[in-house]
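step: validate -> pass
step: tokenize input -> pass
step: predict -> running
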Amino acid sequence: MMHAHSWWQTGVIYQVYPRSFLDSNRDGIGDLPGIISKLDYLRWLGVDAILTLRGTPTCYYGDEVGMQNVAIPPALMHDPPGKQDPQHSRDPQRTPMQWDTSPNAGFCPPEVQPWLPVASDYHTYNVAVEQQETHSFLTLVRALLTLRRSSPALSVGSQRSLDQPNPACFVYLRQHGRQRYVVALNFSAHEQVVSLPEQGQGRLLLSTHLDHEGPMALGEMHLRGNEGLLIEVEAPSLPE
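step: predict -> pass
step: emit ->
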């Protein structure tokens, strides 16, 4: 008997995982700009999934500050495929790294013309600005990387999807030994409730909103629109 698949088994979660999503720079590997260019609201959820799913995360320069594709006029393109067909150019993903708010985003001196145009939003999305902001995309990436590096469950642990009745959310368990983490991702724009009573109590380590942490009852978790949660779960007691 055939069973219907949950939506995330055939839909968004495979798109969120970058290696199987849009290959924005045509190097054969899906990437975060590919996710964002199609699903902008996944900017924060996407990096949460990338850095908490099992496997080797792949990020390119600029991903950590949320750089997006830049429209490049055909006359300014350098990529050979793009010169033949602008639709296949990799140049929109190769614009200068946005370091700060100075001319040319700090990539090169003001009197030097960079090989590709700098994004118009570089005053907002750059390393210097975002490293000073407690709720920036760069802050989120650094927090997730720190947790991944220090947590065997996230770096080398097993992964298991957790059944729960809310179809708008994807929830999975990462585990290594007695270290256990639950990741809950709300793929809707509205608040959702996820119920995992069998998981007991936990401690919220990180929200993609970067605005709260602490004890959390997994029996009723409230996720804001497009929010991701990373929760450390108490390991079950061993039999005496």
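step: describe -> The beta strands are 158-161, 169-176, 179-186, 192-194, 201-207, 214-217, 221-223, 228-233.
step: cleanup -> pass
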